[in-house]
Amino acid sequence: MVARIPVGRLATYGQIAELIGAWGCARQVGWALRRLPLPSELPWHRVVNAAGRISLSPGREGSDWIQRQMLIGEGIAVDAQGRLALAPHRWRPDAPVHLEPAPCEPVPPLDLPLA
DNA sequence: AACCTGACGACCA
DNA sequence: GTGGTCGCCAGGT
User: N or C: which end of chain A has fewer CB within 10 A?
Assistant: First the structure.
């Protein structure tokens, strides 16, 4: 689902969770993205928190600032506190996605094609 | 088993 | 606008 986010658009952790049928499992989306080997083909940097901020954390060991630079590179203004304008850049799938409710299971290996 | 810690989010002061 | 609490769930100690 993250792979579908176009350049210059944003989605939230909770939104991704909801789109894959795992309503309320935002933390697991962060859990999955956290484990991505970087650099990654997946546009992980286009996922931000619902407050409209990059989740800054020392535990990310710099990936948060990389995220900021990548977003700026795509034309999205991000201030030094990670704040950005979420609503104007918010992405929504073209076609509605209907899935059965799913539990918050660990994600499978991410070798999905970037379609 | 009982904590603690997260790339979260809704709510409230 | 900010900050704190709480519910959430996976993992680690």
Answer: C
